[in-house]
Here is the input.
Amino acid sequence: MSEQTGGSLPPIAIRSIRNKTALSLQEPDRVPFMPSMNNFYALHYGVTIQESMTDARSLIEPLRRFCEDYNPDWVWNPIPFPIKPMETIGHKQARWPGAYYNLPENTPYQYVDKSYLSEDDWDEYFRDPALFVLHKVLPLKFGSLGGLAFINPYAMCGHAILSYMQFANPAVQESLKTLIQTGNEVAEYMQGGIELTMSVIQNGYPVYGGAPACIPFDDFADNIRGLMELCMDMTTDPDCVDEALQRLGDITIPAAIQTAKMSHCEDLFLPLHCGVDNFMSVENYEKHYWPTLKRTIEAAVAADLTPIVFCEGRYNTRLDCITDVPKGKVLYNFEEVDWKEAKRIVGPYAAIGGGMNTHTLMNGTPEQVEDEVKRSLDILAPGGGFFMSNSIALDDAPAANMHAWRDAVEKYGNY
Here is the structure.
């Protein structure tokens, strides 16, 4: 497909200007096309999920072909979780393709919800969250890190060198060796990821999602307390929830900003999966979920990063709350929402992404895809501030539907 020349501007500059104009709640030359992909780059172009999780370079050619075929304005930066270091560390809280869990080669990566902090552990956790994670969480989450439970970091601060005898413990030594090996294996995989990202940029396409981060609620739910437990805690132990999230945010929010800046990213990708309508009431969302989400958004904007917030699930009852952000600096991608209400309530404050149901792409016809594009553009495009995207990250879809989607945006999305 042809791309506007925009005078002497290179294609990546044209696309970037289009994206930035929409982000600032203005009308660009055309609605930006921002497809949200999961395993699509692999499965659509003959690479297995297992291969993509073994060597990120396996996606370089598929991504080149994807950009050539569908000409996106903003490309999801795919860095799958690497298999080798997960096997080395004995990762128990996830599943992936291959012999380790005896799963087929195209099994998607899957997180497993688990609680590592019981109702009786709150006092111990608050006394020293870092020590609790070191002694109680990491050894249970990763099978090769049991030796961390024997490390006393405070003894290391004393003047008596004898305290370092703890590192003669064979279990401690094995865990430390595993950490070093795991780190080296992640670094090796990420080198391929850097090459993959640079190949997309060099071909003229802006990328997003290179610096994903969990907001404190989701982070604490996923990695320490457990989602179901934390949702119940909002009723039974609300003060514990708030203290835990605020203290965790004091550490994780600056770390997320630092990682994004060190990675030379221009955005901070925030996937939200715990704040959906059916997980908590509006009152609990506003009291327990939104405060640290807002802190994260504001910290990103202050650092000159664009928060790209993916609101997973139904989000109809949160729209008023999430408008309290710096105007024209945030992009909310919605999976399921009343689009007219989102445009009315959120549109004056933040850009909106979505408009295409992933189910339609996977199972509909090209005609149905085109009709859905037109309906969404009628609602969301006027006045600018809209990115055409899909409801949830895509694993695969018929090429005819993908072409119909892109062609309809080009045909009907001009201002």
Observations:
- Residues 1-5 have pLDDT under 50 and may be disordered.
- The chain has 16 helices and nine strands.
- Strands lie at 75-76, 94-95, 110-111, 207-208, 267-272, 306-314, 331-336, 351-356, 386-390.
